[in-house]
Amino acid sequence: MAGSGFSWKLPDHPKLPKGRTVAVVVLDGWGEAEPDQYNCIHVADTPATDSLRKGAPDKWRLIKAHGTAVGLPSDDDMGNSEVGHNALGAGRIYAQGAKLVDLALASGKIYEGEGFKYIKECFEIGTLHLVGLLSDGGVHSRLDQLQLLIKGAAEHGAKRIRVHILTDGRDVLDGSSVGFVEALENDLAKLREKGVDAQIASGGGRMYVTMDRYENDWNVIKRGWDAHVLGEAPHKFRTAVEAVKKLRAEPNASDQYLPPFVIVDENGEAVGPIVDGDAVVTFNFRADRMVMLAKALEYDNFDKFDRVRFPKIHYAGMLQYDGELKLPSHYLVSPPEIERTSGEYLVHNGIRTFACSETVKFGHVTFFWNGNRSGYFNPELEEYVEIPSDIGIPFNVRPKMKAAEIAEKARDAILNRKFDQVRVNLPNGDMVGHTGDIQATIVGCKAADEAVKIILDAVDQVGGIYVVTADHGNAEDMVKRNKSGQPLVDKNGNIQILTSHTLRPIGSGQS
User: Domain of life, per the record (predicted)?
Assistant: First the structure.
């Protein structure tokens, strides 16, 4: 908490009079991009949000919502809903991703958290498995973080450790994998001298084994599952250094496309399959290329490929990779501890707040907005309304989602003048955009725009103030592109659909 000179008291605004209702509308997954047929926001009929752009530059502008602008490690990191709402609610940038891991490792807090305690329950009789990218590129993971985690786990009771490595060559120079493996092997050898059974157990190249994203190719995950979990792969070696050197010697080989391999003992048996009673940590801090593996490791009803075995394990991610799916359910490093959020300031100044969205984004205008805190700051001054999302129905089947219902709740909250601030999240651009259904996303964007109009009309009726913004991009670009920006096509000539968030800026308009 702040020092002795700190005060919750907010000074009066130099221009805006008191007593005017403020509406904050977050358009989820609503970025700004060049107009074309794959920009669903452009194609959709969106007169309300179109009119906001006419306020540029004084009342409408572009804002970065990815990378270092929101506390992520690099500008190659897409923004996401959790980080975006953290920043919106706090009004400040907090460390996310790699920075959080660095702080947790340096302070030792990583070993005090519930996630580490959860995997530690397996240390007495089970094996600790660490799966991730072996690289110092700093985009998805870092070698020094892995080294510290292995050392710390051993000091906290891990007796048997197996590392499942994915070689890089994409964020670092091709061929650097050999040096990374040698460095890791050196660390593991020192642990073995201290009585810890520590070895590399399996591996493969990141683009061919384990690290696919956006459900593009589940065969990539299956190859990793077979090697890491089942201990089965077409290539078997006695050491990881031998594996990488020999596989790299093959024609046209590269680090990122090395085939899966397993390390075997003198009897030809895999040294580190994942079995019942083991603990597993995926040590990448970046989410996008860990989500698919996390689903395979965690979901009972997983159906993307035949897992053959589904071991009963204690699994944790380095971080939680998807706040909406709460995946994984256990993680070593918690979201940032955010103090003095806007919501907290408002209640300390007697400002009455209303927040609303449907289930899939309700936590974003409450929990994440309030600095990763559950519940109210002051229930006498706050009201949170959750509208149930459709269950068992894909978002592209009902792309309008609950936009109208959210808008109606916001409208009523504005017109009854019970609240000073009304904030909502309209999820359509993001949730329908993730389905990859362009026509449905266009319908969803139109529905969100209609909701914006309902809210802004209510603001006008009471002489209020509005801010319309977003948390990250998605619906503004629904196709994969080459480096020159042209749409990519597959071998059959079909457009390759993009279902992920983007690196595009967002727009923000105000009255």
Answer: Eukaryota
Parallel/antiparallel/unpaired status of strands 353-358 and 421-426: parallel
- Which of these ranges, 329-333, 368-372, 414-418, has the smallest mean pLDDT? 368-372
Widest Cα–Cα separation across the chain: 80
Going along 286-414, which residue ranges are E strands? 314-317, 353-358, 382-387
Residues 233, 262: contact at Cβ < 8 Å?
yes
0.85 exceeded by pTM:
no
The structure tokens 């490690």 sit at 73
In degrees and rounded to multiples of 5, residue 84 shows phi and psi of -60, -45
The set of residues, in sequence order, having a beta carbon less than 8 Å from that of 341 and lying 6+ positions away, is 89, 90, 91, 369, 370, 371, 373
* Distance of alpha carbon 257 from alpha carbon 166, whole angstroms: 10
What does the DSSP 8-state code read for residue 270? B
pLDDT (average), residues 95-108: 91
The verdict on whether 357 is a catalytic residue reads no
Angle at the Cα of 137 from the Cα atoms of 136 and 142, rounded to 5 degrees? 45
The catalytic position among 7, 51, 81, 141 is: 81
First to last CA, the chain: 34
Q: How far apart are CA 164 and CA 26, in angstroms?
A: 40
CA atoms within 13 A on the CB side of 354: 22
How many CB atoms sit inside 10 A of residue 57's CB? Answer: 7
Contacts of 386 (CB under 8 A, 6+ apart): 356, 357, 358, 359, 362
- Helix (H) or strand (E) holding 468, with range, is strand 465-470
Q: Which amino acid is at 424?
A: V
